[in-house]
């Protein structure tokens, strides 16, 4: 029914992931036949359930100012109920202009001079920039690795909350870069600790729609006393490939926290939506679940291929199980190269563009992140090139025979 093997015309889209100018600013010169597996968007066309709505808007031909109409709230309420089993009320939902910007607004609304923000590392780096750009100090809770899976060090977390008193804990659920899906018990512990020490729990759930292994628990599924301390950030952007529309939302059950946040948005006139953004969100949430299920199956097959190829043929690499989304976290320590060196060689010599683990704030050395949200043929070719690259490393001298 859907053909995810079909290539979308990304070369003419001016997207950052495929644009040579952007790529060369980031990676330096790369071969003509590069394969970009870095920035987190997918190479699949959006479903017709969304593009038909855009088409009709284009035919109408007018793009005047719009407002947040009821279908937006209904779509969010139904999505959260059907997908994540949580009941949300209309007044708890606030439109925002992309989750990354929202991280910045949250810090602006709740942190002042001398305040601190807590996060687990490695982490999606706008968490760090959201704080640092407002001159707010970051506290890091390094994730522990047990049996090749990330865990939160709760003892340290409690000490940090108690002694350092961060105003806000930015929590990524599921986690980017690893895809780790946190259990209900883990979320309960995080929420309980934040409540106990009066730290607002900001949960970024943008990766919650594509769960490959395990069960996702929404931060809003805890008891009222705990959700009262939560700001939940979500958008259809990752799952439906709508990132360029810059439309997202926050759900804030506590009226006082909500009022403070909305006041900050209003001060910056973040009130009315982008015409296409609101349409896209409604069409995605109301009518595109079948497509999402199908694309998730396709991605899971990409992952299974990638995982089995690497475990059978490239013992120098070790994959952390990709429990959600389409971003796989790969340990490269056995290659003897740093993440930076391997990323640069893969880009310059083999045209395979991946993220250096060091781009995830800290604790990412020894890792790379690979985006599997693309046509299978790209994954097959990329993994062959990665194998050639690893084979060309001289283990004694850590140097490389050129391609
Ligand atoms: C954890 C996380 N939050 C937010 C975003 C971006 O969300 P948005 O497109 O809504 O700004 C990403 C994109 O990769 C992400 O990984």
Q: Helices and strands in order, then pairings?
A:
Layout (H helix, E strand, L loop, with lengths): L19 H8 L7 E2 L11 H13 L9 H15 L8 E4 L2 H12 L5 E6 L4 H7 L4 E6 L1 E3 L2 E3 L2 H11 L3 E5 L11 H13 L3 E5 L19 H4 L2 E5 L2 H4 L7 E4 L3 H13 L7 H13 L1 H25 L4 E2 L7 E5 L7 H12 L1 E2 L1 E2 L10 E5 L4 H16 L1 E2 L4 E2 L3
Parallel strand pairs: 1-13, 3-4, 3-7, 7-8, 8-9
Antiparallel strand pairs: 2-10, 5-6, 9-10, 11-12, 12-15, 14-15, 16-17
This protein binds pyridoxal-5'-phosphate.
The site of pyridoxal-5'-phosphate has 14 residues, from helix 4 and helix 9.
Describe the protein's architecture and organization.
The chain is α/β, with parallel strands linked by helices. It folds into two domains: 20-47 and 290-392, Aspartate Aminotransferase, domain 1, CATH 3.90.1150.10; 51-287, Aspartate Aminotransferase, domain 2 (3-Layer(aba) Sandwich). It has helices at 20-27, 48-60, 70-84, 99-110, 126-132, 154-164, 184-196, 224-227, 237-240, 255-267, 275-287, 289-313, 339-350, 376-391; strands spanning 35-36, 93-96, 116-121, 137-142, 144-146, 149-151, 168-172, 200-204, 230-234, 248-251, 318-319, 327-331, 352-353, 355-356, 367-371, 393-394, 399-400. Helix 8 links the parallel strand 8 (200-204) and strand 9 (230-234). The structure holds pyridoxal-5'-phosphate. The site of pyridoxal-5'-phosphate has 14 residues, from helix 4 and helix 9.
């Amino acid at each position: 029914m859907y053909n995810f093997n079909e290539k979308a015309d990304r070369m003419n889209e001016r997207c950052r992931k495929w644009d040579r100018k952007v790529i060369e600013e980031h990676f330096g010169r790369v071969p003509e036949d590069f394969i970009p597996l870095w920035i987190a968007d997918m190479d699949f066309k959006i479903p017709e359930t969304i593009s038909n709505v855009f088409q009709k808007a284009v035919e109408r031909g007018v793009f005047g100012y719009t407002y947040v109409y009821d279908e937006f709230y209904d779509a969010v309420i139904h999505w959260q109920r059907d997908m994540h089993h949580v009941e949300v009320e209309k007044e708890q939902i606030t439109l925002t202009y992309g989750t990354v910007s929202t991280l910045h607004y949250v810090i602006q609304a709740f942190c002042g001079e001398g305040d601190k923000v807590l996060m687990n590392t490695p982490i999606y780096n706008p968490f760090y920039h959201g704080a640092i750009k407002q001159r707010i100090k970051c506290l890091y809770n390094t994730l522990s690795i047990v049996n090749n899976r990330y865990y939160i060090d709760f003892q340290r977390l409690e000490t940090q909350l108690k002694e350092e008193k961060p105003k806000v804990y930015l929590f990524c659920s599921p986690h980017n870069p690893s895809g780790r899906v946190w259990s209900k018990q883990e979320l309960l512990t995080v929420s309980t600790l934040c409540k106990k020490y009066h730290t607002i729990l900001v949960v970024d759930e943008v990766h919650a729609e594509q769960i490959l292994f395990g069960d996702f628990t929404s931060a809003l599924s805890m008891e009222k006393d705990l959700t009262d301390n939560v700001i939940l950030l979500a958008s259809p952007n990752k799952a439906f490939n709508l990132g360029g529309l810059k439309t997202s939302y926050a759900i804030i059950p506590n009226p006082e926290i909500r009022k403070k946040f909305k006041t900050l948005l209003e001060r910056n006139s973040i009130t009315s939506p982008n015409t296409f953004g609101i349409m896209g969100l409604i069409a995605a949430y109301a009518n595109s679940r079948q497509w999402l299920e199908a694309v998730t199956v396709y991605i899971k097959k990409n992952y299974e291929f990638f995982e089995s190829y690497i475990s059978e043929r490239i013992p120098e690499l070790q994959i952390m199980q990709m429990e959600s989304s389409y971003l796989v976290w790969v340990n490269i320590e056995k290659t003897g190269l740093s993440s930076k060196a391997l990323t640069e060689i893969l880009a310059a010599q083999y045209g395979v563009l991946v993220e250096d683990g060091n781009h995830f704030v800290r604790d990412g050395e020894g890792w790379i992140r690979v985006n599997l949200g693309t046509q299978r043929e790209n994954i097959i070719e990329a993994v062959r090139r990665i194998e050639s690259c690893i084979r060309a490393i001289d283990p004694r001298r850590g140097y490389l025979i050129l391609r």
